[in-house]
């Protein structure tokens, strides 16, 4: 296979991973902020609705999810420095030899 | 001290100098958006980025000794220098490395003077390619690899450079669009605060990844020079002082902050609001980490610029200054050949004078060029005080025009 073939093969995988993690994750974060505003009510939203306590709970759950995925990113950076990598073979990430 | 030892010392100093320019050239990639949106004060941003680069550089335990193999043929596949280049005590190889490094530093400083975010890895590869062509001829360059994997100048440098800004741009545009859609009806004061935090987090990830990726390259180059001069033999590890000095050089460079480039990326390209900043940095972090996971080599600079551009495209009604973007793309295209020309020129100068004197002259040319460009930059200083001033297209265009090496 030529270089172009290899590059395009790598490129669409990077694009896919980028869309899920690089665009999806900020979207989850945005939902968290929306949920937080829904929880706070009043002037946090333009329609000045009443506060909904459940909004805060949902917001924190979403933020925790975002932080966990970001932590995975840090673990990946550290692991690759030690010649290891993250494997998604078992769905949940595990550290394996590179 | 033998002649080779003195040349080796010059190579090490020059390599650390390159590492330093690598740091301040790339501060913007991680921190330009956080500085522009006011998520972090400028000095705090560069300090945070510097520390994370330092940590990142120490985390890179894997040896990047074969870094030059992707583009030039001066090393065997196990990382040792080619025997033909070390028969004279190593000075043939040292001169190629020295000339290449000088080419990359000169180009890095020149684009910094113009406030253009060009790729430091392209400058490094360009300088090495130029010096190698001058020293060994066209056959010394690994243009296309052997077809078994993504390799060579085309596979490791040119194709990723064409693809990565587009990928990062698409990801950032989609992210920005989603964020704005999902937060419709939430008060701006409320969203801005939240997204500033997200922005700081994602920018920190980019800084850490930068430290692990980029400092490694200089470590590999210095170790190669040490092996060529016979001062190191292990191809599986690098001396601790090499790792420590490279980590400190890139961190110090990052902390110094290439304010001109930060200004162009943070204010010149797109007027960035916190939601866009977070989308851009998340896209950069995801694309950089995903590609290093998949072994797809790319430049942090190209990714960061693509992301920021994408965050402008994805926000309805945002203004993107395509003229600034065009100048950046032009700088990208000429980075590799320009650094190569300087690298080749330096090799010819060093080789025709010969020996230690040749290496010294090349080194002094670097010092003079760097000094001149620094002096030139003081005429229109950009620092942490004015980095966020309003972008005035006509004034910005007047300032760098007419500057020449």
Structure in words:
The complex is a heterodimer of chains A (98) and B (405). Chain A is built from 2 helices and 2 strands, in the order ααββ. By secondary structure, chain A is mostly helical. Helices cover 68% and strands 8% of the residues of chain A. In chain A, helix 1 runs antiparallel to helix 2. In chain A, strand 1 and strand 2 form a beta hairpin. The mean pLDDT of chain A is 84. The relative contact order of chain A is 0.09. The longest helix of chain A is centred in the first third of the chain and has 38 residues. Chain B has 405 residues and is mostly helical. Chain B has one domain. Chain B contains 14 helices and no strands. Chain B is globular, with a radius of gyration of 21 Å.
Order of strands across the main sheet of chain A: 1-2
Per the principal axes of the C-alpha atoms, what is the gross shape of chain A? elongated
Pattern of helices and strands of chain B: HHHHHHHHHHHHHH
Rg of chain A, nearest Å? 19 Å
What class, by secondary structure content of chain A? mainly alpha
| Spatial gap, N to C terminus of chain B | 35 Å
Summed up, the helix count of chain A is 2
How many strand elements of chain A?
2
Helix content of chain B: over 70%
Mean pLDDT of chain B: 88
Alpha carbon gyration radius of chain B: 21 Å
Total strands of chain B: the figure is 0
Instruction: Determine the strand fraction of chain A and express it as a percent band.
Output: 5-15%
Main sheet characteristics of chain A: 2 strands, antiparallel
**Stretches with pLDDT under 50, minimum 5 residues of chain B:** 398-405
